Amino acid sequence: MIRIVTRSRLAQLEEDARTATDCAERAEAATTEVGVILAQAMRELSAAQQELLLKDIEIRRLREEQSRGPVEGETLTVLLHHGEPHTIYASRADAYADTATHGAPPDQVWQRCDERPAASFKWRCEAFIYNPASNGFRRLHLPAPKTLGEAA
Predict the structure, then answer these.
(1) Which of 2, 53, 83, 140 fits as disulfide partner to 119, beta carbons 3.0 to 4.6 Å?
(2) Interatomic CA distance for residues 80 and 110, integer angstroms
(3) d(C-alpha 75, C-alpha 18), whole Å
(4) Do residues 78 and 85 touch, judged by C-beta distance below 8 A?
Protein backbone atom coordinates (compact mmCIF):
# COMPACT_ATOMS: atom_id res chain seq x y z
CA MET A 1 0.00 0.00 0.00
CA ILE A 2 1.28 3.37 -0.94
CA ARG A 3 0.29 6.42 0.96
CA ILE A 4 0.85 9.89 -0.29
CA VAL A 5 1.49 12.47 2.40
CA THR A 6 0.77 16.05 1.54
CA ARG A 7 2.44 19.06 3.03
CA SER A 8 -0.69 20.03 4.89
CA ARG A 9 -0.98 16.50 6.33
CA LEU A 10 2.70 16.59 7.33
CA ALA A 11 2.19 20.03 8.97
CA GLN A 12 -0.84 18.67 10.84
CA LEU A 13 1.16 15.67 12.10
CA GLU A 14 3.98 17.96 13.29
CA GLU A 15 1.44 20.19 15.07
CA ASP A 16 -0.14 17.13 16.72
CA ALA A 17 3.31 15.96 17.85
CA ARG A 18 4.12 19.39 19.38
CA THR A 19 0.73 19.45 21.13
CA ALA A 20 1.29 15.94 22.48
CA THR A 21 4.80 16.90 23.71
CA ASP A 22 3.40 20.02 25.45
CA CYS A 23 0.65 17.94 27.05
CA ALA A 24 3.21 15.36 28.22
CA GLU A 25 5.42 18.11 29.73
CA ARG A 26 2.45 19.63 31.59
CA ALA A 27 1.44 16.19 32.86
CA GLU A 28 5.02 15.55 34.05
CA ALA A 29 5.13 18.93 35.83
CA ALA A 30 1.74 18.25 37.45
CA THR A 31 2.93 14.79 38.51
CA THR A 32 6.02 16.31 40.12
CA GLU A 33 3.91 18.92 41.93
CA VAL A 34 1.47 16.27 43.15
CA GLY A 35 4.45 14.20 44.34
CA VAL A 36 5.75 17.13 46.40
CA ILE A 37 2.28 17.76 47.88
CA LEU A 38 1.85 14.05 48.64
CA ALA A 39 5.27 13.86 50.32
CA GLN A 40 4.38 16.86 52.55
CA ALA A 41 1.01 15.29 53.37
CA MET A 42 2.72 12.03 54.29
CA ARG A 43 5.14 13.87 56.63
CA GLU A 44 2.21 15.67 58.29
CA LEU A 45 0.29 12.39 58.58
CA SER A 46 3.29 10.70 60.16
CA ALA A 47 3.69 13.53 62.69
CA ALA A 48 -0.03 13.43 63.53
CA GLN A 49 0.08 9.66 63.98
CA GLN A 50 3.10 9.99 66.30
CA GLU A 51 1.33 12.65 68.35
CA LEU A 52 -1.80 10.52 68.51
CA LEU A 53 0.23 7.52 69.68
CA LEU A 54 1.87 9.58 72.45
CA LYS A 55 -1.52 10.91 73.58
CA ASP A 56 -2.96 7.40 73.54
CA ILE A 57 -0.10 6.19 75.75
CA GLU A 58 -0.66 9.11 78.16
CA ILE A 59 -4.42 8.42 78.26
CA ARG A 60 -3.79 4.76 79.10
CA ARG A 61 -1.33 5.74 81.84
CA LEU A 62 -3.81 8.20 83.34
CA ARG A 63 -6.64 5.64 83.19
CA GLU A 64 -4.48 3.08 84.99
CA GLU A 65 -3.52 5.67 87.59
CA GLN A 66 -7.16 6.66 88.06
CA SER A 67 -8.36 3.07 88.34
CA ARG A 68 -5.83 2.22 91.07
CA GLY A 69 -7.00 5.09 93.25
CA PRO A 70 -4.87 6.92 95.78
CA VAL A 71 -2.19 5.04 97.68
CA GLU A 72 -1.50 5.51 101.38
CA GLY A 73 1.24 8.09 101.86
CA GLU A 74 0.77 9.62 98.40
CA THR A 75 1.14 13.39 98.54
CA LEU A 76 -0.27 16.27 96.57
CA THR A 77 0.74 19.90 96.71
CA VAL A 78 -1.87 22.63 96.61
CA LEU A 79 -0.65 25.99 95.41
CA LEU A 80 -2.51 28.78 97.21
CA HIS A 81 -2.63 32.32 95.89
CA HIS A 82 -3.49 34.77 98.69
CA GLY A 83 -4.99 31.85 100.62
CA GLU A 84 -7.23 30.63 97.80
CA PRO A 85 -6.53 27.30 96.04
CA HIS A 86 -4.92 27.97 92.67
CA THR A 87 -3.77 24.58 91.33
CA ILE A 88 -3.10 21.05 92.57
CA TYR A 89 0.20 19.40 91.64
CA ALA A 90 1.64 15.92 91.96
CA SER A 91 4.89 17.34 93.32
CA ARG A 92 6.14 20.38 95.18
CA ALA A 93 8.71 21.04 92.42
CA ASP A 94 5.89 21.37 89.86
CA ALA A 95 4.13 23.88 92.11
CA TYR A 96 7.32 25.92 92.52
CA ALA A 97 7.88 25.90 88.76
CA ASP A 98 4.34 27.20 88.21
CA THR A 99 4.81 30.09 90.60
CA ALA A 100 7.78 31.14 88.47
CA THR A 101 5.43 31.44 85.48
CA HIS A 102 3.27 33.78 87.57
CA GLY A 103 6.09 36.12 88.51
CA ALA A 104 7.68 34.54 91.60
CA PRO A 105 11.48 34.42 91.32
CA PRO A 106 12.56 30.96 90.14
CA ASP A 107 15.33 30.90 92.75
CA GLN A 108 13.00 31.83 95.62
CA VAL A 109 13.78 30.05 98.86
CA TRP A 110 10.59 28.45 100.13
CA GLN A 111 10.15 28.11 103.87
CA ARG A 112 7.52 26.51 106.04
CA CYS A 113 4.71 28.92 106.74
CA ASP A 114 4.43 30.49 110.13
CA GLU A 115 1.25 31.18 112.03
CA ARG A 116 0.09 34.00 109.78
CA PRO A 117 -3.13 33.29 107.88
CA ALA A 118 -2.76 31.81 104.40
CA ALA A 119 -4.26 34.95 102.84
CA SER A 120 -1.25 36.99 103.97
CA PHE A 121 1.04 35.06 101.58
CA LYS A 122 1.04 35.81 97.86
CA TRP A 123 2.00 32.21 97.04
CA ARG A 124 1.93 29.38 99.51
CA CYS A 125 2.34 25.61 99.02
CA GLU A 126 0.49 23.19 101.26
CA ALA A 127 1.28 19.48 101.17
CA PHE A 128 -1.53 16.95 101.58
CA ILE A 129 -1.05 13.24 102.20
CA TYR A 130 -3.54 10.46 101.50
CA ASN A 131 -4.95 8.83 104.62
CA PRO A 132 -7.09 5.74 103.88
CA ALA A 133 -8.65 5.89 107.35
CA SER A 134 -10.27 9.20 106.48
CA ASN A 135 -10.72 8.24 102.81
CA GLY A 136 -9.12 11.49 101.75
CA PHE A 137 -6.13 13.80 101.80
CA ARG A 138 -5.09 15.61 104.97
CA ARG A 139 -2.63 18.41 105.51
CA LEU A 140 0.86 17.10 105.96
CA HIS A 141 1.87 19.78 108.46
CA LEU A 142 -0.87 20.84 110.79
CA PRO A 143 -0.55 24.30 112.32
CA ALA A 144 0.63 24.41 115.90
CA PRO A 145 -2.29 24.48 118.33
CA LYS A 146 -3.00 27.90 119.76
CA THR A 147 -3.19 28.26 123.49
CA LEU A 148 -6.51 29.50 124.69
CA GLY A 149 -6.78 32.16 127.33
CA GLU A 150 -7.46 31.02 130.86
CA ALA A 151 -11.04 30.75 132.02
CA ALA A 152 -12.38 33.66 134.03
Answers:
(1) 83
(2) 13
(3) 79
(4) yes
Backbone phi and psi for residue 77, each to the nearest 5 degrees, phi listed first:
-120, 125
Residues whose CB is less than 8 angstroms from the CB of residue 57 and which lie 6 or more positions away in sequence, other chains included: none
CB 128 within 8 A of CB 139: yes
**pLDDT tens-place string over residues 71-119:** 777 888 888 888 888 888 888 888 888 888 877 777 777 666 667 777 7
pLDDT-based confidence at 70, cuts 50/70/90?
confident
- Phi, psi of 150, rounded to the nearest 5 degrees: -70, 150
Pair 99, 108: CB distance under 8 Å: yes
**What are the two backbone dihedrals, phi and then psi, of residue 129, each rounded to the nearest 5 degrees?**
-120, 145
Question: How far is 118 from 84, CA to CA, in rounded Å?
Answer: 8
The model's pTM is: 0.45
What does the DSSP assignment read for 26-95? HHHHHHHHHHHHHHHHHHHHHHHHHHHHHHHHHHHHHHHHHHH---TT-EEEEEEETTEEEEEESSHHHH
